Amino acid sequence: MKNGNFSCGSSVHGISRRQMLGSLGGLAGFGSLLHPAIARDIQQGKKQVCLIWLDGGISQYESWHPLPDSKFAGPFRSIKTSIPGVHFSELMPHTAKIAHKISVIRTMATKDPNHSTGVPRIQRGDPLDRGVDYPYLGSAIAKLLGPADPDLPPYIWIKPGNGGFIHREAGFLGAQYGALALGDGRPPVHIHRPDNVSTQLDAARNALRQKANERFKAYRNTSDVDAYETSYDMARQLMARKEIFDDEKLNQKDRERYGTHPLGRHVLQARQLLEAGVRFVKVNSYHWDTHGDNFNMSQRLVPQADQPFAALINDLDDRGMLDNTLVVMMSEFGRTPLINSRLGRDHWPDCWSLALAGCGIKRGAIIGDTTRDGAFVDGEGYDVGHLFHTIFSVLGINSRRVHYRHKGQKLAIANDDCEPIKEVML
Amino acid sequence: MRSTFFNSIYLFAIVTLQANTPLHERIDGLIREKAVGHSFSGVCDDATFLRRVTLDLTGNIPTAGDVLTFLKDQSPNKRKELIDRLITGDLFADHWMERLSVMLLERLDQGKVTQAEWGHFLKQTLREEPLWDVMVRHMIKANGKGPARSAMKFLGTADHHAMTENVSRLLLGMDLTCAKCHDHPSVKEWKQAHYWGLFAYLNQTRQATHKKEEKVYLVEGLASKKVEFESVFDLEKMSTGPRLPNGGEVEIPQFEKGKEYEKPAEDGLPAVPRFRPRERLAEDLTSGENTGFVRNSVNRIWFLLLGRGLSHPLDQMHGKNPPSHPKLLELLAHEFVSHDFNLKWLLREIMLSKTYQRSSRLPEGVTKVEPDSYRVTAPKGLTPEQLLRSLMRATGNTGQIKALKVDPEAEKFDRKGYFTGSNVELPPSLEEMQAIFIQTFGQPPGEAAVDFSPGVNKSLFLMNDRLIQHWLKPLGNNLVARLGKLETTDAVARGMYLSVLSRLPEEEEKTWVNAYLEKNEQRRTNALGDLAWALLNSAEFRFNH
């Protein structure tokens, strides 16, 4: 197998575990299968992650870093936040009220101005080139931490459009660490039992299936057959908990607080999945690429991120989950200071902003000095490699000591030349 | 005690065996030699054998009728006769086209040759006596001209690095990807020069369009100097001409100015150089003296039948990962060459061995067996294509599905919607069903199909898919319709087990069927569907055991 970890010293047991994870992102009962010490660690800290991805690039001037007096300013005012002296764009009234619960880094300086290469580059943490395809963040966490609840997939991706099982994000880790994608927030259709099959009937026919398997397995001992049986156990567990995908159950007040647009609905659904115990939830929103008409577009789009982001932080905080849940809201780059002839802003990786909150992150830290007009970092900026070290660190993964193993190659989990952003960490 | 005694006799026997002993017996001898003192499973029963061979050679389970006929057959040679009959049939060519294509292309639809053309090339070859070295030679040499044009698909769009990696991994059992930038970090004998030596055979190849035919050809430019490369670690500059790993470097001939070409440019295709390294590769690579190629070939053929390579993983053939049975690998390699790389001959010999025919049930008193000992047969997961065909046959719907007429006016089937639930139609054609099964059960394009990988999405599909539910309703003369007409539950059990699991039911299983049908007397037809559902979702069905 191309993606096999050959020199992991894989014993038969090792292979069977890997296979058992199958291709739904390791729905396996990790707790019982991992090395006991690792399993203990996981149980101790049920750390979770929510990544809100604004695909195309949110403008820092119209969000986290308004500079109304600079020559690059747009038409929007800045407003006070809950942190004295810190302002956000007026397009973010909800988040302004909870600024003291989050951190903002205003000096991201990354290397790629293109969407097609930038999105994977950023979501892989831009590691040094080792001739392999690195996993996206969600797949990396699925591999490094496994599922937080053994019955649930570790990595769920809520996105507009189509869903299904998306393996390509797993890179060299292998398909089983890919994402279970809920297209328009809906789970794959096969999670639903046909209407004409009652619970009782299903149990009866399943008992027959199990009897047949017992008989088949009686004189056989192969990990493949066991893994097959396990995939059914896990499938049935997931079917039994399909209510966690059911957004009909969400209450009306919550819907209004998060917003009824897709991003609002999907972030609310992310909360539901985090509460259910999913390790990593990614929520995608598209069309942030405001080359033309940046200001009208921002006026429409930014509130769609502001409202559910603030609601999510508040809800996690109220539920006592924020200290164990990392929330990241970001894009693949920011937008140019210079406004182009179509009243748009283009791609700008040189100096942009993102927000972090929760697990291991300071509350109310606004980080990074820029030049007066916000165009460039004043001093050293942070690359996405620094961000990945930070994310791994706050989740309790030592990003210097923990490595991937791939075909005998020891591979750093985050860019070797970077380190955690200490000033944003508790 | 008993087994040790017999083993000693056995050992004595194999030492005295000479080369004219048939290969299948020598295979068994070498497998035994490695596990002296250990017990082995016996050969499997007739029904299991029939199912195994039918799946391996034709990609489908046998029909209930096939099972009964084979069980009744009194010929002492019936196993050999079965193999001979199936391996010469058209279904063999159809199925091995799939197996070889999945191995060689890994489900990537690459280059300008269509899947259909490529499939036709493989099928035509497999219908006759396919010679593996000739097939590979065509795939490497193909330039667009003549009947072997379709073989060109293996080289895709002539991406030099992709070709280098595919040739090394798939044809030499060496995953040299790491060696592109530096010597392999953990496999000492894999050098960066190996990667670039292969690269130098391929780096003149590119696509060019024939103006009149408007077809893409794979042409070669003029190779005049060595390929230069450097290690990312020490930045030392190195160079190599075309060279096979462990072979000598091919000298790039220098011609007088004006005499480099054999044929001038024509119809949009460039001039043809006298020295064409890719054509040279086709010869050098597939030579019987290239042990790397021969070993990799027999290892992969062995894998396709036994489910595990003698050298495993398949693309890690190096000193740190020695084969489980080195002598056997050498023997197979030697015999394959002396039988002109005859694919069917090798398949036949492996299938005649006790090693292939062993039961998948553990030997008595044994609870665990290392998979690389081959003391017991390891169940192989069905491929997506095998699974679909077997489901259709088991549920008795093959005829109806094959008779489906696709309405050319109809909108294209929304496959994505089928998985998300927005499309509630049933797939209208066998091709569409195949695509759905490949998407669900196949490996992602570009990844090797080696290990069985169950997954929750796959189990959910088999449990709840609309199409499969549909097949379990009584339709025409399908399984549930036929069983519904039977009087006794014993007859139902017999029909059910013969059709789905390709064997007769045991007494205990008859009582299950009996009890379930009694309990569900009021909804007997549906209950038949439930029983079939349970068997289709069982491990026994999912594996070739």
SSE arrangement:
The complex is a heterodimer of chains A (about 425) and B (about 550).
Chain A (H helix, E strand, L loop, with lengths): L11 H10 L8 H4 L2 H9 L3 E7 L23 E3 L6 E3 L3 H5 L4 E7 L6 H9 L13 H9 L9 E5 L4 E3 L12 E5 L15 H19 L5 H18 L11 H7 L3 H15 L3 E6 L8 H25 L6 E6 L3 E2 L11 E2 L3 E7 L7 E2 L16 H11 L8 E4 L2 E4 L14
Parallel strand pairs in A: 1-8, 1-9, 4-13, 5-7, 5-8
Antiparallel strand pairs in A: 2-3, 4-12, 6-7, 9-12, 10-11, 14-15
Chain B lengths: L1 H15 L6 H12 L11 H13 L5 H9 L5 H10 L2 H16 L9 H13 L4 H10 L18 H13 L19 H11 L2 E6 L4 E6 L6 E4 L6 E4 L20 E3 L8 E2 L3 H9 L5 H16 L19 H13 L4 H10 L1 H4 L22 E2 L2 H11 L3 H5 L12 H6 L9 H12 L14 H9 L1 H6 L7 H6 L4 H12 L6 H13 L4 H13 L2 H4 E2 L1
Helix pairs in contact in B: 1-2, 2-13, 2-14, 3-4, 3-5, 4-23, 5-14, 6-7, 8-11, 9-10, 10-11, 12-13, 12-14, 16-19, 23-24
Description:
The complex is a heterodimer of chains A (about 425) and B (about 550). Chain A is an alpha/beta fold and about 425 residues long. Chain A has one domain (about 5-190, about 240-425): Alkaline Phosphatase, subunit A. Helices cover about 35% and strands about 15% of the residues of chain A. Chain A contains twelve helices and 15 strands. Chain A has helices at about 10-20, 30-35, 35-45, 95, 115-125, 135-145, 200-215, 225-240, 250-260, 260-275, 295-320, 385-395; strands at about 50-55, 80, 85-90, 100-110, 155-160, 165, 180-185, 280-285, 325-330, 335, 345-350, 350-360, 365, 405, 410. In chain A, the strands form four sheets. In chain A, strands 6-7-5-8-1-9-12-4-13 form a nine-stranded mixed β-sheet, with helices on both faces. In chain A, a hairpin with a 2-residue loop joins strand 14 (about 405) and strand 15 (about 410). The radius of gyration of chain A is 22 Å and the shape is globular. Chain A starts with 11 loop residues before the first helix and ends in a 14-residue tail after the last strand. Chain B has three domains: about 1-85 and about 290-380, no CATH class; about 110-285, no CATH class; about 380-545, no CATH class. Chain B is built from 26 helices and eight strands. The model of chain B has no long low-confidence stretch (mean pLDDT about 95). Classes of the chains: A alpha/beta (about 425), B mainly alpha (about 550).
